Amino acid sequence: MSKDKVSSKSSSRSELGSASFFFFKWTASSLEVYKKAIKTNYLTPIIAHCTRAREGDEDASKNFDYSELGANPRMVKDDREEIRARLKDAKNRVWTNEEAKPSLPISLVELSTIYRLKTLVKMCEKLWAIMGRMIEWFEANKSVCHRFAFNKVRESKEIFAHIRRMFESVCAMGEVFRLTSVNWKSCKYSNLLEPNDSEYTCSENSRLVITSPASSYVGEFQSQINYYRTLVYNVAISFGVVLEYIFSSVNREQYAIQQNNLLQTFLREIANVLQMLPPQYKDIQQRLKFSRRTASLLNDPPKNEFVFPIINNEVSDESKKESEKKLDQKKSAKVSSSKYYHGRTNDGKSGRSDRKSTRSPSLKSEPTQKSDKSKSKSKSKSKSKSKSKKKSTLKK
User: Fold this and answer.
1) Which tens digit of pLDDT belongs to each residue from 92-138?
2) The whole model's pTM is what?
3) Domain tally, the chain
4) Which domain holds residue 75?
5) Ramachandran region of residue 221, left (φ > 0), alpha (ψ -120 to 50) or beta?
6) Where are the stretches annotated Disordered (predicted)?
């Protein structure tokens, strides 16, 4: 192998290592920006609408703290007394002239969006905190990562592929909620992302517009939450894979560093974040159109962890055939039992058959046989009778 090929491979590995670290830091900063924008432009308005509180009121937001519920219904706390107190306060509230009394009704669908969106924002906050600590670890151990994690072609490609998926998923969050786009085409590693002509571009942030009835806007809002859920899941899964590759490469080379326990802690924290994933909305008819890059990231949404059975009113042909077979078996059982019922007449349903009648069991009990004791008694009696007869003949 020539020196030029060796140098080109080493340069490509170093480029992937530098690009991975570059896009990982950009993923963390973009995730923080979009998390704040989604919270301000979408979560706060829906909380203000459903709680009848002013926007920016942190107390109203705390009343709807669903961050610890996750997707497990067994973790739901009993807060009925708290709800009664809030309803009583809302009833006795005095409205001032500065704020107009709201006239839009509140639907259960809108309340469900608060839970899902707030949980997803909380998941992004936790992932961003873990990324920040991981960036500090990268900065302190950059030489170790370049020596082991990015020293081999396969590992470096896999790590970059998953960091790229993290970065693209975060950028897609801006497209889902129509926020300001991330201008990554002008960066020095843009060629590694393979840009195309249909990339998402936007210069300002959109905001949730609440109208009445709720069905006029909530369908699109539910679709956005579903897409946001898929992207948050992609970020968490790819983040865990990146840590697994780095951790395994360091251990395989038997290079002892003090931060091994920290990497294992990161993996446990990411697993805890994934446990918070809320359920997705089912049967959403409104589909939104995105760029090719974002659409490819939304093809495989994560399934719900807890699924309740849905009763289907339509009966399939196979189930009908099975039910007919069961009915036929029951009928045949009834016919055979009729033979037992008409056992005294030795015919079925009072109609004699042409077959030769074989003895079949009936409800009438069989005559009992003599026991051994009764047989011995009868033998002794017969012997005594025979002896008495002999004596009478002798006398004569």
Assistant:
1) 766 565 555 556 778 888 989 999 999 999 999 999 999 999 999 88
2) 0.67
3) 1
4) 3-297
5) alpha
6) 318-396
